[in-house]
């Protein structure tokens, strides 16, 4: 079993920056099996959508809406994954969830672990 703990959410002005962090804990074997980690977000009245995914090998996948603005990173030694959010827009407002799974496909199929969610609000 893997537990995911998020931090860094809050209120930020349009054009500003925010950094989300997710720390994974659990058995060494379980954490080692998490080949993919990333972030999803869910705005009120909308479905939960992919923001960014990073694989152990370093490859990444971003939603078109955040490409060039957000950067995902992973520290395998510390078992953490971060999301650097730059040039944020009001439409980025959502609850952001950290996720981890054996593969990206497993995450998409909800065969994954999820954090508690952290609110990000972009408003002036």
Which features characterize this protein?
124 residues; mainly beta; four-stranded antiparallel beta sheet; 2 helices; 11 strands; 8% helix
How does this model look, in words?
With 124 residues, the protein is mainly β. The protein contains two helices and eleven strands. It has helices at 28-32, 104-108; strands spanning 2-7, 10-12, 18-26, 36-42, 49-55, 60-62, 70-75, 80-85, 94-101, 113-114, 118-122. It is globular, with a radius of gyration of 14 Å. The mean pLDDT is 96.
| Gross geometry | globular
Q: How many strand segments?
A: 11
Strand content: over 45%
Task: Describe the oligomeric state of these chains in a short phrase.
Answer: single chain
Structural class designation = mainly beta
Q: What is the terminal-to-terminal distance?
A: 40 Å
* Helix/strand order: EEEHEEEEEEHEE
Unreliable parts: none
Number of helices: 2
The average pLDDT is 96
Please bin the fraction of helical residues.
under 10%
Tell me the radius of gyration.
14 Å
Largest pleated sheet: 7 strands, mixed
List the helices and strands and how they pair.
Elements: E1 2-7, E2 10-12, E3 18-26, H1 28-32, E4 36-42, E5 49-55, E6 60-62, E7 70-75, E8 80-85, E9 94-101, H2 104-108, E10 113-114, E11 118-122
Parallel strand pairs: 2-11
Antiparallel strand pairs: 1-3, 3-8, 4-5, 4-9, 5-6, 7-8, 9-10, 9-11
């Amino acid at each position: 079993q893997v537990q995911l703990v998020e931090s860094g959410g809050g209120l930020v002005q349009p054009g500003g920056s925010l950094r989300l962090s997710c720390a994974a804990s659990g058995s060494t074997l379980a954490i080692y099996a998490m080949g993919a980690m990333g972030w999803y977000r869910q705005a009120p009245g909308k479905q939960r959508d992919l923001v960014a995914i990073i694989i152990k090998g370093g490859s990444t996948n971003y939603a078109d809406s955040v490409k060039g603005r957000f950067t995902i990173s992973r520290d395998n030694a510390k078992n953490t994954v971060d999301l650097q959010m730059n040039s944020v827009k009001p439409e980025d407002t959502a609850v952001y969830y950290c996720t981890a799974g054996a593969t990206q496909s497993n995450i998409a199929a909800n065969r994954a672990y999820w954090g508690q969610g952290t609110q990000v609000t972009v408003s002036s």
